[in-house]
Design goal:
Length: about 50
C-alpha cells in the first residue's frame, strides 16, 4: 500500500461506539497491519450521562 510507504507514515484512528462488535474491529486492525501501517490509535469517549 502506498500510504504505508510514506514518511512519516499515516496513523489510522479507529472509533467505536457502545454497540460496536469486536470482530469487525479486529478485522480492520488486521487489514491495516497487513497493509504495513504500524500506527493504530483507538479513540474512546466516556459513555453519555443520562
Amino acid at each position: 500500500m502506498k500510504e504505508a510507504k510514506k514518511d512519516p507514515q499515516p496513523e489510522v484512528h479507529i472509533r467505536g461506539d457502545l454497540g460496536a462488535k469486536y470482530s469487525p474491529i479486529g478485522r480492520i486492525v488486521l487489514a491495516v497491519q497487513q497493509a504495513g501501517i504500524v500506527k493504530i490509535a483507538f479513540i474512546t469517549e466516556p459513555p453519555p450521562r443520562n
